[in-house]
Description:
This protein is an alpha+beta fold. It has one helix at about 1-20, and strands at about 35-40, 50-55, 65-70, 80-85, 95, 110-115, 120-125, 130. The protein has one domain: Gamma-B Crystallin, domain 1 (Sandwich). It has a four-stranded antiparallel beta sheet with strand order 2-1-4-7, with no helix packed on it. It has a four-stranded antiparallel beta sheet with strand order 3-8-5-6, with no helix packed on it. The protein is globular, with a radius of gyration of 24 Å. Mean pLDDT is about 80; it is low at about 15-30.
Amino acid sequence: MQFATLATFLASMTLTATAAPANSIEVRQEIPHVRATFYRDTGCGRDGSSYGDDYDPLQNTTATGLSTCMNLPSSFNFPSTYFNETGSLTRTIRFYDLPCSQLTTVDSGHHIDITPGSVGCQTLTLKSYVTL
């Protein structure tokens, strides 16, 4: 008799656990990012040079300023970058010619700002970036 009671209890728990509806919050949202193509020349490939690499820097969605600094891969020593896609950004991304360890303020070094919707070629060897 106790076995039947235990079996009924376990069966009801299984039905309760599997009958829960899917939560609509489970819909995946895109993380704001920039699509960047790095080139070996200063004109984003206009002289026929092939591109060096692609990278998708992510916008920080919870903080801004130096605390968000991210270094680009150390192998990236490309003199120009074409920013292809910026439409998902909700804030400005600032790119620097210095690694994070050498930045003392958000205005340190040479930098370029990529704003939501801006695309095009920029000439600067990029080492790091922050979300403003």
